[in-house]
Amino acid sequence: MSFADLGLSDELLRAVEDSGYTEPTPVQRQAIPSVLMNKDLIAIAQTGTGKTASFVLPMIDILSHGRARARMPRSLILEPTRELAAQVAENFEKYGKNSKLSMALLIGGVGFGDQDKALEKGVDVLIATPGRLMDQFGRGKILLSGVDILVIDEADRMLDMGFVPDIEAICSKLPPRRQTLLFSATMPPPIKKLADRFLTEPRHIEVARPAAANALITQRLVESTVRGKRDTLRALLREGVKNAIIFANRKTTVRDLAASLKRHGFAVGQIHGDMEQAERLRELDRFKADEINVLVASDVAARGLDIKGVSHVFNFDVPWHPDDYVHRIGRTGRAGATGTAITLYTAEDAEAIDQIEKLTKTNIDRTPLSGQAPAAPSGPSDEADDQPRSQPRRGRSRSAAKPAGDAPAKPRVQTAGAAPAKPRAQTAPEPVRAEQAPPLPVDANPEWNGPVPAFLQVRLHG
DNA sequence: AAAAAAG
């Protein structure tokens, strides 16, 4: 079975081929023909399954006939986070290169100017997060009465984030005769209700969860103590880590941990929801460009983000919810490459770990405290500044730079191009070569590894 | 309990 068997146009097949994909994933095989027949669709699938292309590809073909009118987008895609919205936009850019579709990315955290201009001209594809979409609608900048195709992506996450009332409000402004596609990793009752209300005789498809069963990810649990976590983490980072995303549960922890790792000489960046959008994207770019090899992140980066060649994921904190664990570790082991996921745990995390093992149906390798060589202190004065705060700091602490006296051996500011002081492994790290991997699933977006395309720069950095 | 998203 190839893409050519799914009923897609020749121009589109060429774009797919140029991207290096040869074989559709299961969700693409099932979804694409049915979307092309203008059927409503409920798909139980999560990122990493090729879900994005399963709606982007047929939509490009459907929309390539006809043209957009001012302020009346012809299709609408709702995404829970700004980064995911940007990622979907890049997919349209890549696969739509032979189709001349116009599009706009409507996300918060960026100025209104460029978005207003694009909307005024008229767009075939509107990709949005709910907040900014409602905002623009309220300002009278959009008429939703011309939307023929609606995609609700990551519906269960939208629910978690409290977007369901927004989605209902948006749906009620759309023409009742339209095609609606709903994607969700799970189908909790409120999402089922939403589907019953806004979809018409949908086709149901379901594909297996990928990350939990991903044999390419080696998982480990390493015991530590609340006070010893940073030492343990640094020791592990020095064990042959090419690059790593480190997840923490709180934004304050992300900030503090990133600052601490920086003081210890790591080439580190951070990403969380309190940062400005341009900054978030810049940190992602630096990580992708290998200017930094450690990215400390909140769960804003846990789902869906496709960054090629991430060798390690660390959980500095055991995630609150076992689903989040699956999403976090799924940032590695992508596109056929192997990866390692290491979770630090303390005595208090026993129950959360039980749940994770139950969900993933695996017994994860444990390294208990007693079995560890004591983490060698690596900085000259670790104790004073380096214990996690028992209380998350609030308010001004975010912008308060560390006083110099608090920072042992602070590395010099690295200018772009200068080799950052990356701590390297004593044992040679095993390079992860995604290029040698089997054919990429279409959702594993290699484009996240390149520079931000011009159309995104305009809207996101402008 | 946390984070995310509209300022």
From TrEMBL:
The keyword Cytoplasm applies. It catalyses: ATP + H2O = ADP + phosphate + H(+). One of its GO terms (cellular component) is cytosol. It comes from Tardibacter chloracetimidivorans. This is DEAD-box ATP-dependent RNA helicase RhpA. Residues 232-375 form the Helicase C-terminal domain. Pfam families: DEAD, Helicase_C. SMART domains: DEXDc, HELICc. The keyword Transcription does not apply. GO terms for biological process: response to temperature stimulus; ribosome assembly. It is an enzyme of class 3 (hydrolase). GO terms for molecular function: ATP binding; hydrolase activity; nucleic acid binding; RNA helicase activity. Residues 400-411 have a biased composition (Low complexity). Keywords: ATP-binding, Cytoplasm, Helicase, Hydrolase, Nucleotide-binding. Residues 363-449 are annotated as: Disordered. It comes from the Bacteria. Residues 1-29 form the DEAD-box RNA helicase Q domain. Gene3D superfamilies: P-loop containing nucleotide triphosphate hydrolases. A motif (Q motif) lies at residues 1-29. Residues 32-205 form the Helicase ATP-binding domain. Belongs to the DEAD box helicase family. Its EC number is 3.6.4.13.
